Amino acid sequence: MNNSLFAGGRTSIHQDYQFSLNQEYRLLVRLSTPEEGTLWTIELLMQSMRDPSLLIPATQSRGLLRALALQQQVAAAKISPLINAFLVKLNPLMVHSFISTDAELLRIQGFNVQIPKEVIQRKQSPSILLNLTSKLIVGKSSALNPLTFDYKVALGDIIISKDEFQLLVRAKSPFVKVKNKWVEFNLDDGQKVLNIINGQNIGGNLRDIAAAGIAAALENIETRVMYDGRSYLSIAEAIMQDLPKVKPSIKGTLRDYQFKGLAWLFHLKKFGYGALLADDMGLGKTVQIIALIAEEKLVQPALIICPTSVIGNWVAEFQRFAPQLRIAVHHGAERSNTQQLAGKLKGMDVLITSYAIAWRDYPCLSAMQWGIMVIDEAHNIKNPFTKQSKHIKKIRAAHRIALTGTPIENRLSDLWSIMDFLNPGFFPPWEAFKERFAKPIEKENDERKAALLRSVVGPFMLRRLKTDKTIIAELPEKIEKVEWCSLTSEQATLYQAVVDETIAAVKENPGQRMEILAAITKLKQICNHPANFLKDSKELGERSGKVVRLLEIVNMCLEADESCLIFSQYTEMTNLLYSHLKKNLKVPVMHFHGSLTRKERDRIVLEFRENGIKVLILSLKAGGTGLNLAEANHVIHFDRWWNPAVENQASDRAYRIGQKKNVFVYKFITEGTIEERIDEIINRKQHLSHSIIDKTVLDMDPESLREFLSLRKESY
Question: Lowest-confidence range among 175-179, 298-302, 503-507, 511-515?
Fold first, then answer.
């Protein structure tokens, strides 16, 4: 014996071999599916680290390797008590426990775990598939084609029949074999799915499809639509694939997606449901409605309610596309009373009025029976509790349509209010809707709830986006650019004075929300121009970094012989800019604002569109929606609005069908000020289109408020 081997006083070399084997082999825990019956197998094997394909069953190991296998089996059993031997038989409940918990714990501790490829390890949430079995053809001249369908259930990508799913649920096992795959799913959700399916009718009615979707969503179950072997998020998306073109009785040619939109409108009208046409702004919602009215040749006239600023646009579009229709406008001080209107409508096809007049003349309009009632810019009834919304919802019409490019402008209450107008009583009451959808989505960013909501509104909402090249490939690009502006010394001094004054007031009286709101308005006005805040002069001069940059960009547009739109949320600022640009430019400048009469607004839009006017200044509230100003391809936001949806609406006055050039959108931000903070919050909340004046700002303590309002760095 080599005495030097034990020179250190050791009497055995057993530990050396064991250590070597421990480096050479690792325990592999292999789960196997039942060959017959219901029992699974866990087998322990020793896996070579040098050659992972070399596997020695622990039951066949000998000597030191067996000792190592026993040692590692004992260690593994401390993590997973199911591993109480080299070979173990498990029932499905034990397998479920092993896969869902023990397997990952074993991996963390360095053991190898092998799960059969037939096992889907991620828990699958069952969802309901409404499998449409009828040909979806509904047009003006076609007979009413029932929507026949049956139910299927999806477990992830695995689709099974209702009867197959019923057998799985009755087995009361959370781990089941489905089409050669082993799947884990929640038994409670499975029972909910069965209850919904068994509790709904299978008829030829859109209501049955919608009712199933609502019932499922309220139970947190997703619903999808299957048609012709493919899965869709909503019935609207599905029927778009197979609706025929309805050749409308209008001048001009509809685009392919507009033909489909028209057929979809016919579809919902025939089934007696209100429709939300939520195509992106600029995709031609107006012409689709005109085509529908022209084709229907209604017995009762159509009523169109829209913002005052776009009444002229509706009249012009009817004259352009359907001059055969007789149009009347109910607006102004000389408008008809109830008796006069009844006589006037006998010879009319369409009556156009504004939201303000519809509210005031509710008794007059509600005394009539309308064939179709259309509300344009439907966010005007976003608050379901205002008198305007309540009165408009009470006007009687055989069919209702809402138009908006921003179905969720601020909060989900907007969407609920519009849906309540379209199909009253069909959706959950507001309080239930708020608890089930609005709170989880808005406050917790719950993506699953958002998907469920899409399935609820899917049968009644059609939304296409300009960014989708399958919708409109030829629309040019929209290029957005932040224009960073500096404060002048005067602006910086005024700005800091307002911040100091506000912090002192809030410290003295904590919780003064109105004080904070007033301060935000003052600071934004100072960022625009001292005169917007001080009201001290009509001359702008060079007191504002924004005004200097504005003049540079406008001159750049003029040098390229291109037109621009300039938006501000403050009417007083638009007045100042109008005077300043008229004085400093050699081209005509026009001003669109809320104090104009309808005829004056129509005249300005007509001149801008037809007379080559290059510069149009607009107040955001008056000119941010409804107008078609595709002659301009530069849009300047002189100040930022809290809500990105409002800004996008304004930009889309130029970025719409008819635009031939790339559209450049300039967003003015004064560096280091509250405007920079607003931009940061808008970017964070863009996906929900929230208004950002919320508790995160209004409930700040004085020090947090100082950080939010104060200049971050020298910006002048």
Answer: 511-515
d(CA 311, CA 607): 16
Amino acid present at 161: S
List the one residue out of 203, 67, 212, 211 whose CA is nearest residue 148.
203
Secondary structure E strands in 308-369: 327-330, 350-354
Closest CA to 228 of 129, 161, 127: 129
The Cα-based distances of 498 to 7, 380, 524, 528, 531 in angstroms read 85, 34, 11, 15, 15
Q: CA-to-CA distance for 428 and 442, rounded, in angstroms?
A: 18
Give residue for tokens 């939300």: 276
The verdict on pTM exceeding 0.70 is no
Residues, the chain = 716
Copy the structure tokens of residue 652. 């889309």
Report the pLDDT value the prediction gives residue 4, as an integer from 0 to 100: 38
CATH number of 254-462: 3.40.50.10810
Q: Assess contact for 315 and 352: CB atoms under 8 A.
A: yes
CB of 632 closer than 8 Å to CB of 571: no
Average pLDDT over the chain, rounded to whole? Answer: 82
What b/e readout covers 532-554, taking b as 16+ CB neighbours within 10 angstroms? bbeeeeeebeebbbbbebbbebb
Instruction: Encode 620-663 in three state secondary structure.
Output: HHHHCCCCCCCCCCEEEECCCCCCHHHHHHHHCCCCCCCCCCCE
Task: Give the whole-angstrom CA distance, residue 314 versus residue 295.
Answer: 17
Q: How do the domains of the chain map onto residue ranges?
A: 14-116, 123-236, 254-462, 478-709
Q: What was the pLDDT predicted at 695?
A: 44
Q: At 374, is the secondary structure helix, strand, or coil?
A: strand
Render pLDDT for 667-698 as a digit per residue (tens, 0 to 9): 998 888 988 888 877 776 555 443 333 445 55
Q: In 10 A of CB 571, how many CB atoms?
A: 17
CATH superfamily for domain 478-709: P-loop containing nucleotide triphosphate hydrolases (3.40.50.300)
First to last CA, the chain: 89
Separation of alpha carbons 525 and 521, rounded Å: 6
Task: Examine domains 254-462 and 478-709 and report if their fold is the same.
Answer: yes
The separation between CA 381 and the C-alpha centre of its own chain, rounded to angstroms, equals 19
How far is residue 177's CA from residue 179's CA, in Å, rounded to a whole number? 7
Q: Tell me which of 412 and 6 has the higher pLDDT.
A: 412
